[in-house]
Design goal:
Arc Repressor Mutant, subunit A; Rossmann fold; six-stranded parallel β-sheet; binds magnesium ion; 5 domains; binds adenosine-5'-triphosphate
Length: 729
């Protein structure tokens, strides 16, 4: 019996080949990660190779942890003697030992983004930077990019550019590096850069080459240039290097990953053994056929026909929905249906292209009390930008709310520091006025600089204007005006650099939630809106709960597998992404690889959903299904369910009835209903708040029940129970 008995022939061939360069090139679910895992166990237990000589690197902490656990299952304790980690934690370990060669002390500190910003803030103060549009966050992200592209301070200096901020950034970069060095600190980019520098020191390189004689890299298609150089240098002496990957799953090009690294492996190592795995163990044949067909549309795709012994299994469902709400409801229905047939929540995963798409799903799942967890991202209403805007709206609705006022008093940055805030607070309590009122009396508050006084006055004016607007205007008008007046988007852009786009999308998604409600109930007031979100954003504590649905972006799903996958929002402009992508063949191909990754996560059942129309920044836009759906082979699709076929007239929403004018004609039946109004605790057209479904409008009253229109459809509520669940808004 050998450990390798549990591998197929090809996998075994790869796992046995311990000396020399080896490339395992294979499609999703073919057992690449499994092969590495077994290979490590085999080397240690059956080949007598010291575990200390083994280095295996993977992409995420979660993947590294899983790999360690699996090796441990195979061979026990010895697993922990091998170095199985991410590039970053590998770097940290080595730098703790050899960092002194680069002038670092063994107990250097690691600077996270917040620390980095703090350093830059200090430097910008020294430099007296007056340009408000240049925030510390932007400078931090520029510096990280420079570092990761191996542009040193002196390289950057040679660029000698003319753009306005160049000189400032250059000086920040120089001083920032100085400060970190003085403080014996490294940021995340430094870890990789310094690890690479270590390898330029001959005696260190020699030691490391001697120590790590056997190297393995998983997800090699997503390594960037520095990572590539690190691996190449350490492996140069013994050349026992095994890399594993799939060109068709390269999805981090936008972050500097270089797909050439895997494509050129055979050039780098002319004697490399190349093993191709073709049997997929993860998915049914229907799912696999779909994945194979979609990726074929990429010109750069390498032909790798994956096959499986598994039966065809369930066909793939492509579901066209009226809008995002229907998409959510459909998915929840399917989950409930399957749960009733014996599945657990943990077997379902909802995938989407961008984080902002999670909002509708979260709201839906909360309403139906279905436990869920958002992976690799925060729950929608917990995100900083959402909390900021909600805090503003709360203050506009209720200026006495000091907690929320404190949150936004210096967001966007107005140079109102903690000390100033303290003075304002003191003044307010001494003169017995609210904090908000104190903003308007900035000029009288002792000890404030004139800059702060002006800032307070500006903020006070903006808030007052918005309060006034909220009395006459709609919530979405207040929202738009708020974003514009405080310059919230430019704040996000300058604070978060490359990350800003996703945050702006989140804010736009919040606007969508408002417009949706406004369409459901007439004359939505700010108070009603805020009450409604306090309902939908209440998060149940998942502590101790292990059975929940997973929600994540496709990027975060890399390397993982799930029984049932819902791939959502499969529409042009979402997936593939923005228009830019449509005209850029390379980016389109990266999106298609992402689609391949998504499809191949599914083991048993795959759904693709798309909506015919969707709110996009408060407007109902007609949406076209993604080209990726057209690329699916028809023979593995469940009959494509179209909106028209599915919805009998009786199921049309009240909005549709309105459009046809149906509602405007008073029929005899209507008269009968109207007579009954006296029995109902709520009047026709009245706004009500339901304990679960939030804000709605009474659209029907009959002898026994009320029909209430909520954002996600009309619900009937028994008159007898009406007051239990409904209150007047
Ligand atoms: P990805 O490209 O998505 O990272 P992968 O190629 O790394 O996929 P694995 O995750 O290693 O694939 O394997 C996919 C699934 O197939 C796992 O559940 C794994 O245990 C199973 N599997 C792989 N090879 C075999 C085998 N020879 N016998 C039984 N199960 C296998
Ligand atoms: Mg894998």
């Amino acid at each position: 019996m050998s450990i390798l008995d549990k591998l197929n022939e090809k996998q075994r061939e790869a796992a046995k080949k311990i000396e020399g360069p080896l490339l395992i090139l294979a499609g999703a679910g073919s057992g690449k990660t499994r092969t590495i895992t077994y290979r490590i166990a085999h080397m240690i237990n059956e080949k007598g190779i010291s575990p200390y000589k083994i280095l295996a690197v993977t992409f995420t902490n979660k993947a590294a942890k899983e790999m360690r656990e699996r090796v441990e299952l195979l061979i026990g304790e010895d697993a922990h003697k091998a170095m199985i980690s991410t590039f970053h934690s590998f770097g940290v370990r080595l730098l703790r030992v050899y960092g002194d060669k680069l002038g670092y002390n063994a107990n250097f500190t690691i600077y996270d983004t917040d620390d980095q910003k703090r350093v830059i803030r200090g430097i910008m103060k020294e430099l007296v930077v007056n340009d408000k549009s240049l925030t510390e966050g932007a400078v931090v992200s520029i510096i990280s990019k420079l570092k990761e592209n191996s542009v040193s301070v002196s390289d950057y200096e040679k660029e000698n550019r003319f753009d306005s901020n160049y000189k400032i950034i250059l000086e920040c970069y120089r001083r920032y590096n100085g400060t970190l060095k003085e403080n014996n600190g490294m940021d995340f980019s430094d870890i990789l850069v310094n690890l690479h520098k270590l390898l330029d020191i001959p005696e260190v390189l020699e030691k490391l080459q001697e120590k790590f004689q056997y190297i393995m890299v998983d997800e090699y298609q997503d390594t960037n240039n520095i990572q590539y150089n690190i691996v190449t240098k350490i492996a140069a002496k013994y050349r026992n290097i095994c890399v594993v990957g799939d060109e068709n799953q390269s999805i981090y090009g936008f972050r500097g990953a270089n797909i050439k690294n895997i494509l050129d492996f055979e050039k780098d190592y002319k004697d490399a053994l190349v093993v191709k795995l073709e049997e997929n163990y993860r998915s049914t044949s229907a799912i696999l056929t779909a994945a194979n067909e979609v990726i074929k549309n990429n010109k750069t795709a390498k032909d790798k026909n994956l096959w499986t012994k598994k039966p065809q299994g369930e066909l793939i469902t492509v579901k066209e929905c009226l809008d995002g709400r229907e998409e959510v409801n459909y998915i929840i229905e399917e989950i409930v249906k399957r749960k009733n047939m014996g599945k657990s929540y943990r077997e379902f995963t909802i995938l989407y292209r961008t984080n902002a798409q999670s909002r509708l799903f979260e709201e839906g799942l909360l309403k139906y009390n279905i436990p869920y967890k958002v992976f690799g991202g925060m729950q929608f209403y917990q995100r900083a930008e959402i909390k900021d805007i909600v805090a503003y709206l709360t203050v506009i609705n209720n200026p006495q709310d000091t907690i929320n006022l404190n949150r936004i008093i210096n967001v966007p940055k107005r140079k109102i520091g903690d000390k100033s805030i303290e003075k304002i607070r003191d003044y307010a309590s001494e003169t017995n006025i609210s904090m908000f009122e104190a903003l308007g009396k900035g000029m009288e508050i002792p000890g404030l600089t004139s800059g702060v006084k002006i800032a307070l006055d500006e903020l006070y004016t903006i808030l007052n204007d918005l309060i006034e607007l909220s009395h006459e205007g709609s919530v979405s008008e207040v929202f738009d005006e708020l974003i514009r007046r405080v310059g919230y988007f430019s704040y996000l852009n300058s604070t978060y650099g490359a990350e800003a786009e996703g945050r702006i999308e989140n804010v736009e998604e919040l606007k969508n939630s408002i417009v949706e409600l406004e369409k459901t109930v007439d004359f939505l007031t700010l108070r009603e809106y805020l009450e409604n979100i306090s309902l939908v954003s209440a998060t149940d504590d998942l502590e101790g709960e292990s059975d929940y649905i997973k929600l994540m972006t496709i990027h975060n799903s890399k390397g993982l597998e799930f029984p049932v996958v819902f791939l959502t929002g499969v529409e042009d402009d979402i997936f593939p992404g923005s228009k830019k992508v449509l005209f850029n063949p390379e980016e389109l191909e990266e999106e298609r690889r992402l689609c391949y990754v998504a499809i191949t996560r599914a083991e048993e059942k795959l759904y693709l959903t798309h909506a015919k129309s969707r709110f996009v920044y408060g407007e109902f836009l007609t949406k076209i299904k993604s080209r990726f759906i057209e690329e699916l082979p028809i023979e593995v699709l469940d009959k494509v369910e179209k909106v028209q076929d599915l919805l009998p007239k009786s199921k049309l929403s009240t909005n549709d009835k309105k459009i046809t004018g149906y509602k405007n004609i008073i029929t005899a039946e209507d008269l009968k209903k109207m007579k009954n109004i006296s029995n109902s605790p709520f009047a026709m057209g009245e706004k009500v708040i339901h304990t679960k479904f939030g804000l709605g409008k009474v659209v029907e009253i009959s002898e026994k029940k009320l029909g209430v229109q909520f954002v996600d459809g009309k619900k009937d509520i028994a008159l007898a129970l009406a007051t239990k669940f409904l209150t007047k808004a």
